[in-house]
């Protein structure tokens, strides 16, 4: 979404990174299962998809060389808040905010009312311009 320089969107996220390291001590390579807790309201980012997921755990299989080390980094993000500061609110910007669902439903309902008022003002200005 393209906002002007005077507009600002601030997302606040909580990022949880966990690195798992495996060391191969066997004579042959092996596969290691890594289980990681699944947190509600978190999404994986920059992490390969797990091979299995249940309500409490996610599981990955990591190939470990013999001998050698490898690892897996699991990165999860939880959205905490979004603040939108729009100093140049126009009907077009408002339509974009609503169309791309950048604001929550309650704010969206209020902004739809504002958009309706902006349309009425525009119609009134056109009517005034017609009669002048």
Notes on the structure:
The protein is an alpha+beta fold. Strand 4 (52-53) and strand 5 (57-64) form a beta hairpin. The protein has helices spanning 91-99, 105-131; strands spanning 8-24, 30-37, 43-44, 52-53, 57-64, 68-85. The mean pLDDT is 83. Helix 1 runs antiparallel to helix 2 (105-131). It contains 2 helices and 6 strands. The strands form 2 sheets. A 3-stranded antiparallel sheet has the order 1-6-3, with no helix packed on it. Strands 2-5-4 form a 3-stranded antiparallel sheet, with no helix packed on it.
Descriptive labels:
single chain; 132 residues; alpha+beta; 3-stranded antiparallel β-sheet; 2 helices; 42% strand
Annotate the secondary structure layout.
Blueprint: E1 8-24, E2 30-37, E3 43-44, E4 52-53, E5 57-64, E6 68-85, H1 91-99, H2 105-131
Antiparallel strand pairs: 1-6, 2-5, 3-6, 4-5
Brief summary of the model shown:
The protein has 132 residues and is an alpha+beta fold. The chain has 2 helices and 6 strands.
């Amino acid at each position: 979404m393209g906002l002007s320089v005077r507009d600002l969107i601030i997302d606040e996220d909580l990022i949880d990174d966990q690195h798992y390291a495996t060391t191969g001590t066997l004579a042959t390579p092996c596969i290691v299962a890594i289980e990681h807790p699944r947190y509600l309201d978190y999404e994986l980012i920059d992490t390969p998809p797990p091979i299995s997921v249940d309500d409490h755990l996610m599981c990955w299989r990591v190939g470990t060389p013999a001998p050698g080390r490898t690892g897996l980094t699991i990165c999860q993000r939880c959205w905490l808040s979004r603040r939108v500061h729009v100093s140049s609110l126009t009907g077009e910007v408002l339509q974009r905010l609503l169309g791309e669902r950048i604001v929550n439903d309650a704010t969206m309902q209020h902004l739809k009312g504002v958009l309706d008022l902006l349309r009425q003002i525009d119609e009134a200005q056109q009517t005034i311009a017609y009669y002048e």
